[in-house]
Amino acid sequence: MELIGTPDNPVPPDALISAVGAEDGALLRIARWSPIPNSRGQRSLGTVCVFTGRGEFIEKYFETIGELVQRGFSVVAMDWRGQGLSARELPDPGKGHIDDFDMFERDLEALRKQVLQFLCPRPWYALGHSMAGAVLLSQAHSGRSPFERIVLVSPMIEIAGRAAQVSTRVVIEIADAVGLGASYAPGVSRRSSMVEPFDGNDLTSDAKRYARNAAIVEAAPQLAVAGPTIGWINAALRITRKLADPELPRRTGAPILIVAGADDRVVSIPAIARFANRLKAGRLILLPGARHEVLQETDAIRAQFWAAFDAFVPGGREEAAALRRASDHEAAQRILNPPWWRRLFGARRHAA
User: Fold this and answer.
1) Domain-located, residue 5
2) Which range of residues forms the domain containing residue 207?
3) Domain count, the chain
């Protein structure tokens, strides 16, 4: 296994690549990074685990990984089974497939036992995008999460559009039950969404980062998957029905920060807001102008994400302080000034 860099997306230095054997023998690609010791000799502020969304891969998060390392964190990134260079679930490697999201949770447990437990300094934090958010929330609700704090970016609480309709759920369940689970879902693309034209995309408003991600797939097409199968959609609908239980967030004790784009058309923002408002220890921050992939967005939007991250994850505030000395001092102050954070992290509103 390897990590694949491109001129616009180099591999962060000193990566350690390995494979983790899942419960069923599937091999999962893992990459680790360690920070440079700071002036006080502190080697790490803890470990942040980066978990990707559906169809994504470690390489897409090189920029984010580098920023976490610069903040003083050790970083672990994993390709979910069926994605990136981890084992695929079907003979056709282009199909995005899973039988049940419980398999992802078992892979998280393999990561904990084989990597985090022996190789990664505590405390452990999770940073998960979209599909990963659903998996991390389900794990946290079960009481098995090893993470001190969880940061979710555009979590898949509910899929936007027709997928949420009862008629769609019934058709998908029937198709899966009669043996069509490994078939592409009707109407989905037979190629990665990362190679679709920028104009009209639902992922990001940043043309440069969009082109960078397309270049990764062009250089290494083996990393990408195309549209989801009927089985994947049925599994996703099952976990989103689970997350729709209004009691589930109230019984989830881990501190959770949710950051989402106000212009997201991939997942349901109203569903995310309802969920966040019921969390025992959680907050939702909506970023105006941001689409689904906040970490692939413009510099201004990403700066707001990092300000929220630094305020939420202990240890990250050193980098936040450095932002105040950055060249764009005025913009950094608008993001980081205390009254704004008191409004965001002040007294929480309980659901009616």
Assistant:
1) no
2) 16-345
3) 1
